[in-house]
Structure formats: C-alpha cells, structure tokens
Write the structure tokens for this entry.
Amino acid sequence: MIKITNDLNTLNGSLVEMKDQLIYELGQQGVTATFDPTTGLLGLIAHIADISGGGATVSNLTLTTNKSILSYYDSDTCTLTATATDSNNQAVNGAKIIFLQNNTIIGSATTDNTGTATYTYTSTGTGDTTITAITDNATANIQIEDCLYYGNWDKIKTWLKYTGISGRNIYNLKPNYQTDVSLEWQLSDATITNWLIGFGQLDGTYNDIKAMIFRYSNAYQMWTTAPNEGPYTKGNMNNVTSSTVFKLETTNLNTVKFYADNNLAGTYTTSNTLPLYLRVDDFTASPLTLNYLKVKPL
C-alpha cells in the first residue's frame, strides 16, 4: 500500500484514494493501469469523485432539451440543460454533471452561477433514447426520439428521389435502415385521397410495393404483396379521423404491423424482405401534404 494522500473523512477524498490505491496495487502485479473518464471502473470512481467534491449539496436536478425529435439524416443536434439546486431551491455553482445516453456516458459539464450546465447532443439515429443527468445525489431523465429521418413535407421532399410515372408523383428514399424500423406520418390535409405510403422498390409499379397504407376514395386499406403477385388488400383500417397518426412497423425483415393512432389494425407476415425503400405515391389532383413523417429504429 502507498502512503495515504487524500482525506478519507470525505466521500471525494475516499474515492480518489480508492482510485490511487487500485492503480498502485495493479502496478504491483505488473499491470499498467490508466483510466478513461467515460468507461471502466477507474473512470467511474474518478467520475463519482468529481461529482461528489466540494460546494453546496445538490438536492434537486432537472433536465430539459430544446428539441425532443431529431433527424440523423439532417445532422440534427439538441441542447441538453441540467439545472441543479440545493434544499433551499438555490442554484448550485460548480456541480459536476454527467450526461448519459441509455446508461452510457456521453459527456460532462459544470454548473455555472445560475446552477445550469449544458451539453450538445448530436443525433445518432438510434431511435427512442433516454438521456440522463446525474450529480452527487440527484438524477434526472428525459426521452428523445432520435430518428433516422424526421421532417415536414417540404423537408421530406428534399430527401426523396422524385419519379413521375403515368400521371402519378412517386417519391423514393434509399434506406439507412436497421432491421426493425418504424414509419410514421400524419396528414396535414385529410381530405386528400388516392395516396399510398409504405415500403417498396423504385421502378414505380405496384408489384414492387411490399407493405403500405393506401387511401382510395374514403377507404383506408392495409396492403402487402405476395411473391410474384401484385398487391392485394389485407384489410380495411377503421376509426380513422382527420388527425389520425398512421404507422407501419417492420420486424425480423418479414413482419409488418399497421397502426392507426397507436391502435393495432393488423399484423401480416410476408416472404418478402422488409424494409426496403421508403415509398410515397401521390396520384391525385390535389398534392399530398404531411404534417410530418418520421423513420426510426425500433
């Protein structure tokens, strides 16, 4: 054992001493020990020591973001703001805040005289994610939808390859998808008919649509295709309103679930490989418009 050089009467001193002694003991066994401040036991000890040392005790911690839905395709970022206060609801200056994404440390910051610390999070397209801020004895969490693609219709059209065929407007997006993916959208004009959104190929024929929600006249239908066949109706979607949120979920490369307002309308398995290209067909005199469309891993 090396000489004790830290104050063992404080949590901070004890943790720093633990780290120093552990490095020494490993060295005696011929192991050169270093620590990464974001991973491993030594790094964790050092981080706990950092956030437990000095200043007023943090009793309350809040975490906010200026943007809760991000688009990886557009390199979106958001600002995470942690606010630390003591038991008298006064700002705590100098508190070390550690930020984690799904329990993995992604960065740290120190609160200023207003008790706030910020961190810029850059989209990784990982889907629904939990962001956590921790300090000495307080924790706060928020949820972020970290999408592969997200935007309104004007933005969506900048992603998509446009093909006009037989009086129809067809938009396709080559995927940056993982195996399991969710496709969700909401119409900005629910009176528009004759459209389809789903997964398919690029040649513009119906035969290459593998899974879609289709509206013809006033009917909302769920369609899939079988090998070497054209598309056929799997079922009608009921209880659709002007504000309905539509969603397709594909899993295991061959199963698709259809939702209207988070209500499961149908589940089908196809021998086709899903997902493929994102495909939007608009074959109406009134152009299709969407409040938003999002694609994210499940």
Q: What stands out?
A: Residues 11-28 form the longest helix (18 residues). The chain has three helices and 21 strands. The chain has three domains: 11-52, 60-147, 149-297. The chain has a mean pLDDT of 77.
